[in-house]
């Protein structure tokens, strides 16, 4: 069985061409800026979507532990009382109270995503994202074997904070690895991602020796990863250590995930941070290209930037 969050079709940001992205649940990092906070815990969870709620209070009435209350136009769950029986989600007529995550067999998931084969054409395919894909490496490998029989292009999106043996399980079936390098400073990585980056960097070095395409991705987060020194350091690491890489994306910060934190009843440390400007992103792009001169054509900005007033 695999534990997934959702399936996103017609994606253009998770590898080449048109892709179907399968988001898996559970992550080995806890990045403070995480844009998919619902993916961090492996456990099945729930969320309340205010815009969908008709305040029928079925969830309040059915909860066996009286963990759900209605006050000040809000449905609130006491996490200490809730045992995630999910009776509230089952009873909700509008799905405003919604289960996060589901278990699905490898065979059933294969049958679901292979439906999309027709629109992949010559350069699209399947991307496994998360969370951390490689937490479920055995199941991912089994699914990839089935997909390879159908000549599907396969990409995995990973933060690399796992034992390399998990890479070895899936690499025979994978065409592309999207690999996050967020911060090169061990201290900063520990501060913002709640783990040091030794394993991550070591795994990237091992991975670069395989005959496989690698796209490095760095999220540009205000006051966390957006410093010139961080981009310079990552560029130097790539230049001095990697045998090969095919692409490096500087991914712009966005605040579209804020509603996800509200749904989960959580606060977000980056709620008040401003969007990154095009000028700032281009400045970082120049820094990266100046270090990686021979590979400068392989460095790109991805994602939307803040609109700037014309002078």
What do you see in this structure?
Helix 9 runs parallel beside helix 11. A nine-stranded mixed beta sheet has the order 7-1-2-8-9-10-11-12-13. A two-stranded antiparallel ribbon has the order 3-6. The chain is globular. The protein has two domains: 241 residues, Aldolase class I (TIM Barrel, Alpha-Beta Barrel); 53 residues, Alpha-Beta Plaits, CATH 3.30.70. Helices cover 30% and strands 22% of the residues. It is an alpha/beta fold and 311 residues long. The model has no long low-confidence stretch (mean pLDDT 95).
CATH superfamily of the largest domain: Aldolase class I
Give the number of domains.
2
What fold name stands as the CATH topology of the largest domain? TIM Barrel
Termini gap: 56 Å
Mean of residue pLDDT values: 95
Order of helices and strands: EEEHEEHEEHHEHEHEHHEHEHHE
Spatial strand sequence of the major β-sheet: 7-1-2-8-9-10-11-12-13
The structure class reads alpha/beta
The radius of gyration computed from the alpha-carbon positions, rounded to a whole number of angstroms, is 21 Å
CATH class of the largest domain: Alpha Beta
Do you know the CATH architecture of the largest domain?
Answer: Alpha-Beta Barrel
Based on CA inertia axes, which overall geometry fits? globular
Task: Please count the beta strands (DSSP E, at least 2 residues each).
Answer: 13
Helix content: 25-40%
Largest sheet, strands/sense/barrel: 9 strands, mixed
Spans of at least 5 consecutive residues whose pLDDT stays below 50 are none
Oligomer: single chain
> Percent of residues in beta strands?
15-25%
The helix tally amounts to 11
């Amino acid at each position: 069985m695999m534990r997934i969050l959702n399936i996103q079709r017609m994606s253009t940001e998770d590898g080449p061409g048109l892709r179907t992205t399968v988001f898996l649940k559970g992550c080995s990092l806890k990045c403070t800026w995480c844009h998919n906070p619902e993916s961090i815990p492996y456990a099945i969870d729930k969320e309340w979507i205010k815009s969908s709620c008709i305040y029928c209070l079925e969830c309040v009435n059915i909860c066996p532990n009286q963990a759900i209350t209605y006050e000040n136009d809000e449905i609130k769950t006491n996490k200490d009382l809730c045992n995630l029986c999910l009776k509230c989600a089952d009873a909700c007529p509008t799905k405003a109270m919604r289960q996060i995550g589901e278990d699905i067999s490898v065979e059933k998931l294969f049958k679901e995503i292979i439906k999309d084969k027709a629109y992949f054409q010559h350069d699209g395919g399947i991307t496994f994202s998360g969370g951390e894909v490689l937490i479920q490496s055995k199941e991912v490998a089994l699914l990839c074997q089935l997909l390879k029989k159908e000549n599907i292009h396969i990409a995995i999106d990973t933060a690399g904070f796992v034992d390399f043996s998990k890479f070895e399980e899936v690499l025979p079936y994978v065409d592309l690895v999207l690999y996050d390098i967020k911060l090169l400073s061990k201290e900063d990585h520990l501060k913002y991602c709640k783990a040091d980056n030794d394993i991550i960097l070591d795994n990237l070095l091992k991975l670069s020796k395989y005959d496989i395409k690698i796209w490095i991705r760095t999220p540009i987060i205000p006051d966390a990863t957006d410093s010139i020194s961080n981009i310079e350091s990552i560029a130097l690491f790539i230049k001095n250590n990697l045998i090969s890489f095919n692409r490096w994306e500087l991914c712009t910060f966005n605040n579209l995930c804020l509603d996800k934190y509200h749904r989960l009843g959580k606060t977000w440390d980056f709620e008040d941070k401003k969007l990154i400007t095009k000028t700032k992103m281009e400045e970082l792009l120049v820094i990266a290209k100046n270090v990686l001169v021979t590979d400068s054509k392989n460095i790109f900005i991805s994602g939307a930037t803040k609109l700037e007033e014309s002078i």
